[in-house]
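User: I'll paste a sequence; please echo it back and then give the predicted structure.

Assistant: Echoing your sequence first, then the prediction.
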Amino acid sequence: MGVGLSGKCTVAIEVVDGNDDARKRTMSRLISSIPENSPKTVVAVFSVYDPDSGDNGKMTSSIQNDFPFLLKPTLKNFYTLVTERPLDREERARYITITVTDTGTPRLKTEHNITVLVSDVNDNGPAFTQTSYTLWVRENNSPTLHIGSVSATDTDAGANAQVTYSLLPLPDPLLPLASLVSINPDNGHLFALTSLDYEDLRAFEFRVGATDRGSPALSSQALVRVLVADANDNAPFVLYPLQNASAPCTELVPRAAEPGYLVTKVVAVDGDAGQNAWLSYQLLKATEPGLFGVWAHNGEVRTARLLSERDAPKQRLVVLVKDNGEPPLSASVTLHVLLVDGFSQPYLPPPEAEAAAAAPADPLTVYLVVALASVSSLFLFSVLVFVAVRLCRRDGAGSAGRCPVPEGHFVDVSDPQVPVGGVIDLMLGIK
Protein backbone atom coordinates (compact mmCIF):
# COMPACT_ATOMS: atom_id res chain seq x y z
CA MET A 1 0.00 0.00 0.00
CA GLY A 2 1.33 3.51 -0.90
CA VAL A 3 0.29 7.11 0.22
CA GLY A 4 0.55 10.06 -2.20
CA LEU A 5 0.82 13.86 -1.64
CA SER A 6 -2.87 14.24 -2.15
CA GLY A 7 -3.54 11.94 0.72
CA LYS A 8 -4.75 9.12 -1.45
CA CYS A 9 -3.36 5.59 -1.49
CA THR A 10 -3.31 2.76 -4.03
CA VAL A 11 -4.20 -0.75 -2.95
CA ALA A 12 -3.16 -3.74 -5.15
CA ILE A 13 -5.20 -6.86 -4.51
CA GLU A 14 -4.01 -10.20 -5.89
CA VAL A 15 -6.84 -12.61 -6.46
CA VAL A 16 -5.68 -16.13 -5.88
CA ASP A 17 -7.43 -18.62 -8.13
CA GLY A 18 -9.50 -21.19 -6.44
CA ASN A 19 -10.45 -24.48 -8.05
CA ASP A 20 -14.06 -23.54 -8.47
CA ASP A 21 -14.93 -23.86 -12.18
CA ALA A 22 -16.43 -26.90 -13.74
CA ARG A 23 -14.74 -28.52 -16.62
CA LYS A 24 -16.34 -27.97 -19.96
CA ARG A 25 -16.37 -30.18 -23.05
CA THR A 26 -16.55 -29.12 -26.63
CA MET A 27 -17.46 -31.89 -29.11
CA SER A 28 -16.05 -31.24 -32.52
CA ARG A 29 -16.85 -34.58 -34.18
CA LEU A 30 -19.10 -37.50 -33.37
CA ILE A 31 -19.99 -40.50 -35.53
CA SER A 32 -23.61 -41.27 -34.85
CA SER A 33 -23.47 -44.99 -35.59
CA ILE A 34 -20.65 -47.50 -35.86
CA PRO A 35 -20.92 -51.00 -37.35
CA GLU A 36 -20.18 -53.57 -34.70
CA ASN A 37 -17.44 -55.20 -36.73
CA SER A 38 -15.39 -52.03 -37.18
CA PRO A 39 -12.04 -51.97 -35.29
CA LYS A 40 -9.76 -48.89 -35.06
CA THR A 41 -12.59 -46.55 -35.99
CA VAL A 42 -12.72 -42.90 -34.83
CA VAL A 43 -15.84 -42.43 -32.79
CA ALA A 44 -15.46 -38.82 -31.60
CA VAL A 45 -13.02 -35.88 -31.42
CA PHE A 46 -13.52 -33.47 -28.52
CA SER A 47 -11.77 -30.89 -26.35
CA VAL A 48 -12.13 -29.96 -22.70
CA TYR A 49 -11.06 -26.78 -20.89
CA ASP A 50 -11.11 -25.30 -17.40
CA PRO A 51 -11.28 -21.48 -16.80
CA ASP A 52 -9.18 -21.90 -13.70
CA SER A 53 -5.50 -21.18 -13.86
CA GLY A 54 -2.43 -23.04 -12.92
CA ASP A 55 -2.83 -26.53 -11.72
CA ASN A 56 -6.49 -25.87 -11.28
CA GLY A 57 -6.86 -25.54 -15.03
CA LYS A 58 -4.83 -28.60 -15.96
CA MET A 59 -7.01 -31.61 -16.82
CA THR A 60 -6.84 -35.29 -17.61
CA SER A 61 -9.56 -37.33 -19.29
CA SER A 62 -10.22 -41.07 -18.90
CA ILE A 63 -12.73 -43.79 -19.68
CA GLN A 64 -13.58 -47.08 -18.02
CA ASN A 65 -11.03 -49.82 -18.46
CA ASP A 66 -13.57 -52.43 -19.54
CA PHE A 67 -14.77 -50.41 -22.51
CA PRO A 68 -13.47 -51.45 -25.93
CA PHE A 69 -12.26 -47.90 -26.67
CA LEU A 70 -9.03 -45.94 -26.53
CA LEU A 71 -8.87 -42.26 -25.55
CA LYS A 72 -5.90 -40.71 -27.31
CA PRO A 73 -4.71 -37.13 -26.45
CA THR A 74 -3.78 -35.09 -29.52
CA LEU A 75 -3.28 -31.32 -29.04
CA LYS A 76 -3.59 -29.53 -25.72
CA ASN A 77 -6.81 -30.68 -24.09
CA PHE A 78 -7.93 -32.40 -27.33
CA TYR A 79 -8.77 -36.09 -27.41
CA THR A 80 -9.70 -38.68 -30.03
CA LEU A 81 -11.97 -41.59 -29.10
CA VAL A 82 -11.36 -44.68 -31.24
CA THR A 83 -12.52 -48.31 -31.09
CA GLU A 84 -9.90 -50.67 -29.72
CA ARG A 85 -11.43 -53.87 -31.17
CA PRO A 86 -14.60 -54.95 -33.02
CA LEU A 87 -17.69 -54.13 -31.03
CA ASP A 88 -20.50 -56.52 -30.20
CA ARG A 89 -23.91 -54.94 -30.47
CA GLU A 90 -25.51 -57.96 -28.85
CA GLU A 91 -23.33 -57.39 -25.76
CA ARG A 92 -23.76 -53.61 -25.54
CA ALA A 93 -25.36 -51.24 -27.97
CA ARG A 94 -24.70 -47.89 -26.19
CA TYR A 95 -21.58 -46.41 -24.72
CA ILE A 96 -19.72 -44.33 -23.02
CA THR A 97 -18.86 -42.20 -19.97
CA ILE A 98 -15.82 -39.88 -20.04
CA THR A 99 -14.42 -38.69 -16.73
CA VAL A 100 -12.50 -35.36 -16.69
CA THR A 101 -10.32 -34.52 -13.63
CA ASP A 102 -8.18 -31.45 -12.94
CA THR A 103 -4.95 -31.35 -10.95
CA GLY A 104 -6.03 -28.61 -8.55
CA THR A 105 -6.41 -28.72 -4.82
CA PRO A 106 -8.79 -30.17 -4.05
CA ARG A 107 -9.13 -32.12 -7.24
CA LEU A 108 -12.41 -31.76 -8.99
CA LYS A 109 -13.86 -34.10 -11.57
CA THR A 110 -16.85 -34.27 -13.80
CA GLU A 111 -18.35 -36.90 -16.04
CA HIS A 112 -19.54 -36.43 -19.58
CA ASN A 113 -21.61 -39.02 -21.42
CA ILE A 114 -21.06 -39.72 -25.09
CA THR A 115 -23.68 -41.91 -26.68
CA VAL A 116 -22.14 -44.22 -29.25
CA LEU A 117 -24.70 -46.20 -31.24
CA VAL A 118 -23.48 -49.57 -32.49
CA SER A 119 -25.24 -50.65 -35.65
CA ASP A 120 -26.05 -54.34 -36.19
CA VAL A 121 -24.16 -56.65 -38.51
CA ASN A 122 -25.60 -60.06 -39.43
CA ASP A 123 -23.10 -62.03 -37.41
CA ASN A 124 -25.54 -64.33 -35.62
CA GLY A 125 -27.52 -67.09 -37.26
CA PRO A 126 -30.95 -68.25 -36.06
CA ALA A 127 -30.84 -70.68 -33.15
CA PHE A 128 -33.59 -73.23 -32.51
CA THR A 129 -34.90 -73.53 -28.99
CA GLN A 130 -34.26 -77.29 -29.25
CA THR A 131 -31.85 -79.30 -31.36
CA SER A 132 -34.60 -81.86 -32.01
CA TYR A 133 -38.37 -81.96 -31.64
CA THR A 134 -40.65 -84.95 -31.09
CA LEU A 135 -44.26 -84.49 -32.14
CA TRP A 136 -47.21 -86.87 -31.73
CA VAL A 137 -50.19 -87.15 -34.03
CA ARG A 138 -53.03 -89.61 -33.66
CA GLU A 139 -53.74 -91.72 -36.71
CA ASN A 140 -56.82 -91.02 -38.82
CA ASN A 141 -56.23 -87.33 -38.14
CA SER A 142 -58.08 -84.75 -40.16
CA PRO A 143 -56.01 -83.10 -42.92
CA THR A 144 -54.52 -79.65 -42.16
CA LEU A 145 -54.32 -80.59 -38.45
CA HIS A 146 -51.80 -78.55 -36.43
CA ILE A 147 -49.40 -81.14 -34.99
CA GLY A 148 -46.82 -78.85 -33.35
CA SER A 149 -44.38 -75.98 -33.82
CA VAL A 150 -40.67 -75.25 -34.03
CA SER A 151 -39.11 -71.98 -32.94
CA ALA A 152 -35.82 -70.22 -33.62
CA THR A 153 -34.54 -66.81 -32.46
CA ASP A 154 -31.87 -64.48 -33.83
CA THR A 155 -30.03 -62.06 -31.52
CA ASP A 156 -29.36 -59.61 -34.33
CA ALA A 157 -31.60 -56.66 -35.02
CA GLY A 158 -33.93 -55.56 -37.78
CA ALA A 159 -34.02 -57.67 -40.89
CA ASN A 160 -31.02 -59.61 -39.60
CA ALA A 161 -33.27 -61.01 -36.86
CA GLN A 162 -36.28 -61.89 -39.01
CA VAL A 163 -36.52 -65.67 -39.37
CA THR A 164 -38.30 -67.76 -42.00
CA TYR A 165 -38.86 -71.53 -41.77
CA SER A 166 -38.75 -74.21 -44.45
CA LEU A 167 -38.76 -77.99 -44.86
CA LEU A 168 -35.44 -79.39 -46.01
CA PRO A 169 -35.32 -82.16 -48.65
CA LEU A 170 -35.06 -85.70 -47.33
CA PRO A 171 -32.20 -88.00 -48.32
CA ASP A 172 -34.77 -90.75 -48.89
CA PRO A 173 -36.68 -89.95 -52.10
CA LEU A 174 -39.20 -92.71 -51.40
CA LEU A 175 -40.77 -90.79 -48.51
CA PRO A 176 -43.06 -88.11 -49.97
CA LEU A 177 -42.50 -85.48 -47.28
CA ALA A 178 -44.26 -82.76 -49.26
CA SER A 179 -47.47 -84.79 -49.16
CA LEU A 180 -47.24 -85.49 -45.41
CA VAL A 181 -46.54 -82.18 -43.69
CA SER A 182 -46.11 -78.47 -44.36
CA ILE A 183 -44.68 -75.60 -42.33
CA ASN A 184 -45.77 -72.00 -41.95
CA PRO A 185 -42.71 -69.97 -43.02
CA ASP A 186 -43.50 -67.13 -40.60
CA ASN A 187 -44.21 -68.90 -37.31
CA GLY A 188 -42.91 -72.48 -37.70
CA HIS A 189 -46.30 -74.16 -37.22
CA LEU A 190 -46.42 -77.71 -38.64
CA PHE A 191 -50.48 -78.83 -40.29
CA ALA A 192 -50.35 -82.69 -41.32
CA LEU A 193 -51.51 -82.62 -44.91
CA THR A 194 -53.06 -86.07 -45.04
CA SER A 195 -54.70 -88.60 -42.77
CA LEU A 196 -51.96 -90.82 -41.33
CA ASP A 197 -52.32 -94.57 -40.82
CA TYR A 198 -50.36 -96.16 -37.97
CA GLU A 199 -50.38 -99.55 -39.70
CA ASP A 200 -48.70 -98.04 -42.79
CA LEU A 201 -46.42 -95.39 -41.28
CA ARG A 202 -45.60 -95.43 -37.59
CA ALA A 203 -42.92 -92.71 -37.57
CA PHE A 204 -41.01 -90.42 -39.88
CA GLU A 205 -38.48 -87.65 -39.42
CA PHE A 206 -37.25 -84.67 -41.36
CA ARG A 207 -35.23 -81.48 -40.93
CA VAL A 208 -36.49 -77.92 -40.66
CA GLY A 209 -34.38 -74.92 -41.67
CA ALA A 210 -34.50 -71.41 -40.14
CA THR A 211 -32.99 -68.60 -42.23
CA ASP A 212 -32.65 -64.91 -41.38
CA ARG A 213 -33.07 -62.04 -43.84
CA GLY A 214 -29.60 -60.64 -43.49
CA SER A 215 -27.05 -60.26 -46.25
CA PRO A 216 -25.55 -62.73 -46.51
CA ALA A 217 -28.30 -64.81 -44.92
CA LEU A 218 -27.44 -67.20 -42.09
CA SER A 219 -29.35 -70.37 -41.25
CA SER A 220 -29.54 -73.38 -38.93
CA GLN A 221 -31.34 -76.72 -38.82
CA ALA A 222 -33.31 -78.84 -36.37
CA LEU A 223 -34.50 -82.45 -36.51
CA VAL A 224 -38.22 -83.13 -36.25
CA ARG A 225 -39.50 -86.63 -35.51
CA VAL A 226 -43.21 -87.33 -35.91
CA LEU A 227 -44.66 -90.34 -34.10
CA VAL A 228 -48.06 -91.65 -35.18
CA ALA A 229 -50.18 -92.74 -32.21
CA ASP A 230 -52.29 -95.83 -32.72
CA ALA A 231 -56.08 -95.65 -32.77
CA ASN A 232 -58.31 -98.68 -32.37
CA ASP A 233 -59.35 -98.92 -36.01
CA ASN A 234 -58.69 -102.64 -36.64
CA ALA A 235 -60.94 -105.44 -35.44
CA PRO A 236 -59.41 -108.79 -34.41
CA PHE A 237 -58.78 -111.20 -37.29
CA VAL A 238 -59.21 -114.95 -36.71
CA LEU A 239 -56.40 -117.08 -38.16
CA TYR A 240 -57.71 -120.44 -36.91
CA PRO A 241 -60.09 -121.99 -37.51
CA LEU A 242 -60.59 -120.59 -40.99
CA GLN A 243 -64.04 -119.21 -41.54
CA ASN A 244 -63.96 -118.91 -45.32
CA ALA A 245 -63.29 -122.57 -46.07
CA SER A 246 -65.81 -124.52 -48.19
CA ALA A 247 -66.28 -127.08 -45.41
CA PRO A 248 -66.03 -126.13 -41.73
CA CYS A 249 -63.28 -127.65 -39.64
CA THR A 250 -64.66 -130.20 -37.18
CA GLU A 251 -62.91 -131.03 -33.91
CA LEU A 252 -63.21 -134.57 -32.46
CA VAL A 253 -63.67 -135.05 -28.74
CA PRO A 254 -63.85 -138.53 -27.14
CA ARG A 255 -66.75 -139.00 -24.81
CA ALA A 256 -64.33 -140.31 -22.21
CA ALA A 257 -62.50 -136.95 -22.06
CA GLU A 258 -61.84 -135.58 -18.60
CA PRO A 259 -62.83 -132.04 -17.59
CA GLY A 260 -60.20 -129.60 -18.90
CA TYR A 261 -59.59 -131.62 -22.06
CA LEU A 262 -58.13 -129.33 -24.78
CA VAL A 263 -60.53 -129.33 -27.71
CA THR A 264 -58.89 -126.67 -29.88
CA LYS A 265 -57.44 -123.19 -29.72
CA VAL A 266 -58.76 -120.06 -31.39
CA VAL A 267 -55.89 -118.05 -32.84
CA ALA A 268 -56.47 -114.37 -33.66
CA VAL A 269 -54.38 -111.26 -34.28
CA ASP A 270 -55.02 -107.52 -34.23
CA GLY A 271 -53.28 -105.03 -36.52
CA ASP A 272 -53.28 -102.31 -33.87
CA ALA A 273 -50.68 -101.80 -31.13
CA GLY A 274 -50.54 -101.59 -27.35
CA GLN A 275 -53.76 -102.17 -25.48
CA ASN A 276 -55.67 -101.86 -28.75
CA ALA A 277 -54.14 -105.22 -29.72
CA TRP A 278 -54.75 -107.01 -26.40
CA LEU A 279 -57.28 -109.76 -27.12
CA SER A 280 -59.69 -111.59 -24.87
CA TYR A 281 -61.91 -114.58 -25.67
CA GLN A 282 -65.31 -115.62 -24.42
CA LEU A 283 -67.91 -118.25 -25.29
CA LEU A 284 -70.85 -116.48 -26.81
CA LYS A 285 -73.14 -119.39 -27.76
CA ALA A 286 -73.08 -123.18 -27.31
CA THR A 287 -75.31 -126.14 -28.14
CA GLU A 288 -74.81 -127.45 -24.61
CA PRO A 289 -74.25 -124.55 -22.18
CA GLY A 290 -71.76 -125.52 -19.50
CA LEU A 291 -70.14 -128.32 -21.52
CA PHE A 292 -67.27 -126.22 -22.88
CA GLY A 293 -65.36 -123.17 -21.70
CA VAL A 294 -62.94 -120.72 -23.32
CA TRP A 295 -59.87 -119.38 -21.55
CA ALA A 296 -60.06 -115.62 -21.70
CA HIS A 297 -56.39 -114.84 -22.42
CA ASN A 298 -55.25 -117.54 -24.83
CA GLY A 299 -58.36 -118.73 -26.68
CA GLU A 300 -58.08 -122.38 -25.59
CA VAL A 301 -61.38 -124.28 -25.76
CA ARG A 302 -61.61 -126.98 -23.09
CA THR A 303 -64.27 -129.29 -21.69
CA ALA A 304 -65.83 -127.98 -18.51
CA ARG A 305 -67.31 -131.27 -17.24
CA LEU A 306 -67.56 -134.97 -18.01
CA LEU A 307 -69.42 -135.86 -21.19
CA SER A 308 -72.53 -138.01 -21.01
CA GLU A 309 -74.56 -140.04 -23.48
CA ARG A 310 -77.25 -137.39 -23.33
CA ASP A 311 -74.93 -134.79 -24.91
CA ALA A 312 -75.66 -134.32 -28.59
CA PRO A 313 -72.93 -135.77 -30.83
CA LYS A 314 -72.71 -132.55 -32.82
CA GLN A 315 -71.87 -129.39 -30.92
CA ARG A 316 -71.71 -125.84 -32.28
CA LEU A 317 -69.81 -123.14 -30.41
CA VAL A 318 -69.56 -119.41 -31.15
CA VAL A 319 -66.47 -117.72 -29.66
CA LEU A 320 -66.20 -113.93 -29.41
CA VAL A 321 -62.74 -112.32 -29.80
CA LYS A 322 -62.57 -108.75 -28.45
CA ASP A 323 -59.72 -106.23 -28.25
CA ASN A 324 -59.03 -103.82 -25.39
CA GLY A 325 -59.41 -100.59 -27.36
CA GLU A 326 -61.78 -97.75 -26.68
CA PRO A 327 -64.30 -98.43 -27.98
CA PRO A 328 -63.52 -102.18 -28.27
CA LEU A 329 -63.82 -104.00 -31.58
CA SER A 330 -64.62 -107.69 -31.93
CA ALA A 331 -64.97 -110.67 -34.25
CA SER A 332 -66.69 -114.04 -33.83
CA VAL A 333 -65.76 -117.55 -34.94
CA THR A 334 -67.92 -120.68 -35.16
CA LEU A 335 -66.53 -124.04 -34.01
CA HIS A 336 -67.96 -127.47 -34.90
CA VAL A 337 -67.26 -130.22 -32.36
CA LEU A 338 -68.09 -133.91 -32.85
CA LEU A 339 -68.41 -136.17 -29.79
CA VAL A 340 -67.18 -139.71 -30.52
CA ASP A 341 -66.91 -142.89 -28.45
CA GLY A 342 -63.25 -143.19 -29.45
CA PHE A 343 -60.94 -141.96 -32.12
CA SER A 344 -61.37 -145.34 -33.94
CA GLN A 345 -65.02 -144.55 -34.59
CA PRO A 346 -65.61 -143.69 -38.23
CA TYR A 347 -65.72 -140.01 -38.83
CA LEU A 348 -69.21 -138.78 -39.47
CA PRO A 349 -69.23 -136.63 -42.59
CA PRO A 350 -70.66 -133.16 -42.28
CA PRO A 351 -73.95 -132.40 -44.01
CA GLU A 352 -72.09 -130.84 -46.90
CA ALA A 353 -70.20 -134.08 -47.54
CA GLU A 354 -73.42 -136.14 -47.38
CA ALA A 355 -75.00 -133.81 -49.89
CA ALA A 356 -72.00 -134.19 -52.17
CA ALA A 357 -72.22 -138.01 -51.96
CA ALA A 358 -75.87 -137.93 -52.95
CA ALA A 359 -75.19 -135.83 -56.04
CA PRO A 360 -75.22 -137.57 -59.52
CA ALA A 361 -71.95 -139.24 -60.45
CA ASP A 362 -69.70 -137.80 -63.09
CA PRO A 363 -70.20 -139.43 -66.58
CA LEU A 364 -66.54 -140.40 -66.83
CA THR A 365 -66.78 -142.27 -63.55
CA VAL A 366 -69.79 -144.18 -64.85
CA TYR A 367 -67.90 -145.24 -67.98
CA LEU A 368 -64.95 -146.51 -65.95
CA VAL A 369 -67.20 -148.53 -63.68
CA VAL A 370 -69.02 -150.13 -66.65
CA ALA A 371 -65.73 -151.02 -68.38
CA LEU A 372 -64.34 -152.61 -65.23
CA ALA A 373 -67.52 -154.66 -64.74
CA SER A 374 -67.41 -155.87 -68.35
CA VAL A 375 -63.81 -157.06 -68.12
CA SER A 376 -64.50 -158.83 -64.84
CA SER A 377 -67.55 -160.59 -66.27
CA LEU A 378 -65.64 -161.75 -69.34
CA PHE A 379 -62.84 -163.13 -67.22
CA LEU A 380 -65.26 -165.02 -64.98
CA PHE A 381 -67.07 -166.48 -68.01
CA SER A 382 -63.81 -167.71 -69.50
CA VAL A 383 -62.81 -169.44 -66.30
CA LEU A 384 -66.18 -171.21 -66.08
CA VAL A 385 -65.92 -172.46 -69.68
CA PHE A 386 -62.42 -173.76 -69.08
CA VAL A 387 -63.46 -175.60 -65.91
CA ALA A 388 -66.47 -177.14 -67.64
CA VAL A 389 -64.40 -178.46 -70.55
CA ARG A 390 -61.83 -179.91 -68.21
CA LEU A 391 -64.43 -181.74 -66.14
CA CYS A 392 -66.07 -183.15 -69.28
CA ARG A 393 -62.76 -184.64 -70.51
CA ARG A 394 -62.01 -186.25 -67.18
CA ASP A 395 -65.47 -187.79 -66.87
CA GLY A 396 -65.35 -189.29 -70.37
CA ALA A 397 -61.78 -190.57 -70.37
CA GLY A 398 -62.80 -194.21 -69.59
CA SER A 399 -65.90 -194.38 -71.76
CA ALA A 400 -66.32 -194.61 -75.46
CA GLY A 401 -68.22 -191.43 -75.68
CA ARG A 402 -66.53 -188.05 -75.47
CA CYS A 403 -67.85 -184.65 -74.89
CA PRO A 404 -68.02 -182.74 -78.10
CA VAL A 405 -65.77 -179.79 -77.54
CA PRO A 406 -64.17 -177.46 -80.00
CA GLU A 407 -60.61 -178.13 -80.90
CA GLY A 408 -58.12 -176.10 -79.08
CA HIS A 409 -55.18 -176.17 -76.75
CA PHE A 410 -55.78 -177.72 -73.37
CA VAL A 411 -53.52 -178.40 -70.45
CA ASP A 412 -53.93 -180.48 -67.41
CA VAL A 413 -54.39 -178.10 -64.54
CA SER A 414 -53.76 -180.97 -62.15
CA ASP A 415 -50.26 -181.25 -63.55
CA PRO A 416 -47.99 -179.57 -61.00
CA GLN A 417 -45.63 -178.58 -63.76
CA VAL A 418 -48.15 -176.23 -65.27
CA PRO A 419 -48.14 -172.83 -63.59
CA VAL A 420 -51.34 -171.02 -62.83
CA GLY A 421 -50.17 -168.08 -64.91
CA GLY A 422 -49.81 -170.40 -67.90
CA VAL A 423 -53.38 -171.56 -67.48
CA ILE A 424 -54.63 -168.02 -67.48
CA ASP A 425 -52.51 -167.10 -70.49
CA LEU A 426 -53.77 -170.12 -72.41
CA MET A 427 -57.32 -169.32 -71.41
CA LEU A 428 -56.94 -165.83 -72.80
CA GLY A 429 -55.54 -167.20 -76.02
CA ILE A 430 -51.88 -166.28 -75.40
CA LYS A 431 -49.54 -168.94 -76.87
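The chain has three helices and 28 strands. Residues 237-357 form a domain with the Immunoglobulin-like fold (CATH 2.60.40.60).
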